[in-house]
Fold:
Amino acid sequence: QVQLVESGGGLVQAGGSLRLSCAASGRTFATMGWFRQAPGKEREFVAAISWSGSRTYYTDSVKGRFAISGDNAKNMVYLEMNSLKPEDTAVYYCAADRANRLSSRIGVYDSWGQGTQVTVSS
Structure:
């Protein structure tokens, strides 16, 4: 498995920005993803990046506002979040897939971090 540790969450006003970081260690991985889970809701896909080739994939609700990126040398993945809305409030999780699938499906990711809380106030 890959060990993943998220950081960068916090409280921000609507319209503000946050940058989440995910530090990865352990075995190699091919796709990294960000997911989120709001209180009382199911975990949902946010964005993914292919570790080779830097292909990216976003859920519609964050397109144009969020950007996923990676630093291969540092084994880091980032999620830059701009124009934040109260509905973006959730625990954000970093996840790793050993295959280059660039998937939005939770089940294909076999390593998960503990999550970092993002709260957007109105």
Remarks:
- The first strand starts at residue 2 and ends at 7.
- The radius of gyration is 13 Å.
